[in-house]
Each structure stands twice: as C-alpha cells, then as structure tokens.
Amino acid sequence: MRQVLTILMVIGLLWAGVKVRDYFQSAMQRAQAEVDGPSGTAPGKLPGMPSSMETSLDEAKRGGASGLRDWLRQHQDEVQDPRLAEIQLDYVVLVGLSNRAEAKRVLGLVGQRMTPTSPLYKRFQQLQQSYQ
User: What is the Cα–Cα distance from 10 to 8, expressed in whole angstroms?
Assistant: First the structure.
C-alpha cells in the first residue's frame, strides 16, 4: 500500500510541475506581447497600419467622407503605404460624389507616391481615369 501511495504522490508532483511550467510560460508570453505591443496588421488588410486602429477607421468610414477626412488628418502620420494609399483612395471615392476638386487633389497626392509595383496601382489607374 505504501508503494502505491508513493507512486501516486510522484505522479501528482509531476503533473503539478507540468501545470506550473505551463502557467509560467503563458504568463511570460502575455508579458512579452504587452512589451511588443499589438501585432502587425489586421488579417486580410494591406500592411502599414497597426490592427489596433482598425476599429477607429471603421467608425470613420461610417461617418462618410467628412469622417474619413477627419480620421486621415488625425492619423496620417501613424499610417504608411500601401495602407495609407488604400484609405486615401477610399476617401477619393467617397468625396468624389460631392467635391470633385478635393477628390482630384487627394488622388494627385496618392499618385506622387504610387509605383507600378504597388498592389493598388490598378485601382489608382481606374480612379485616375474617372477623375480626368
């Protein structure tokens, strides 16, 4: 009987050790994630903007052209191409319905940075033809 209890106690200690190790590994991963900050881009989106900004961008898009314009003014320095160009092209589409001159102006800004290798080049060309 004493041998069975000893074996059970050893198995219990091993099991507890594994659980404690798993807990500390997950705690270290959470702490490292907080130090590193939010992970890169949102899934399915172009790179250049932290995924933490997606919710505020979605809210701005619901606000129409003026909401997106205000969002761009506030966050333009925090977003890089190609995601910035994508957002600006979305703004061009929204504002083009009411203010064609503003749409052309923003399209010109995007065109200065656009290269033929950009994933947005085809969309840019289509919009450029529409606003000539």
Answer: 5
Question: Which residues are CB-contacts of 45 (< 8 A; sequence separation ≥ 6)?
Answer: 51, 54, 83
Structure confidence by residue, pLDDT tens digits, 72-120: 999 988 888 889 999 999 999 999 889 999 999 999 999 999 999 989 9
Task: Tell which residue, 128, 61, 58, has the closest CA to residue 91.
Answer: 61
């059970």: which residue's tokens?
A: 8
Compute CA 124 distance to the chain's CA centroid, rounded to the nearest angstrom: 21
CA contacts within 13 A on the Cβ side of 26: 5
- pLDDT tens track for 11-28: 999 999 999 999 988 888
Nearest Cα residue to 68 out of 38, 97, 111, 39: 97
pTM reported for the whole predicted model = 0.66
CA 107 from chain center: how many Å?
Answer: 23
- Crossing angle (nearest 10°) for helices 54-62 and 64-75: 150
Structure tokens at 58: 């979605």
